[in-house]
Amino acid sequence: MAAEKLAQAREIFARHLHADPREIVFTSGGSEAEIDTSKMTVNGDDEWTYLDAMTIMDYLAGNITLTAEQIEAADYNHDGVVSYLDAMRIMDVLAGNG
């Protein structure tokens, strides 16, 4: 199941980034990956899922707007910027690549 979701995630990222899906690689950042449950999720349902990552990508593509609270949650890696790296980190952790 995780492999199927990872393949789907690669396809989605490839479409957003105009890249070959085989070039999309998810990494754990060198430490054991786990979902940060201490903060709200982007879509507000209190459960980190692929939908949160997709919401970030839609926001970055200009398809939707986010509230201030959603933007804070979307900065998953806490670097002060909402980027594709945040969405990729969420998807990587959900795929079990940690």
Could you describe the 3D structure shown?
The chain has 98 residues and is mainly α. The protein is built from four helices and no strands. It has helices spanning 2-17, 50-60, 68-74, 84-94. Helix 1 (2-17) runs antiparallel to helix 4 and helix 2 packs antiparallel against helix 4. Mean pLDDT is 77; it is low at 28-35.
Topology:
Blueprint: H1 2-17, H2 50-60, H3 68-74, H4 84-94
Helix pairs in contact: 1-4, 2-4
List keywords for this structure.
4 helices, mainly alpha, 98 residues
Element pattern in H and E = HHHH
Chain-averaged pLDDT: 77
Assembly form of the protein = single chain
Tell me, briefly, the overall form: globular
What level of helicity do the residues show?
40-55%
Q: Unreliable stretches, pLDDT < 50, 5 or more residues?
A: 28-35
State the separation between the terminal residues, measured CA to CA.
Answer: 16 Å
User: What is the makeup of the main sheet?
Assistant: none
Tell me how many strands there are: 0
What Rg is obtained from the alpha carbons, in whole angstroms? Answer: 13 Å
Number of helical elements: 4
**Based on helices, strands and strand pairing, what is the structural class?**
mainly alpha
Report the β-strand fraction as a percent range.
under 5%
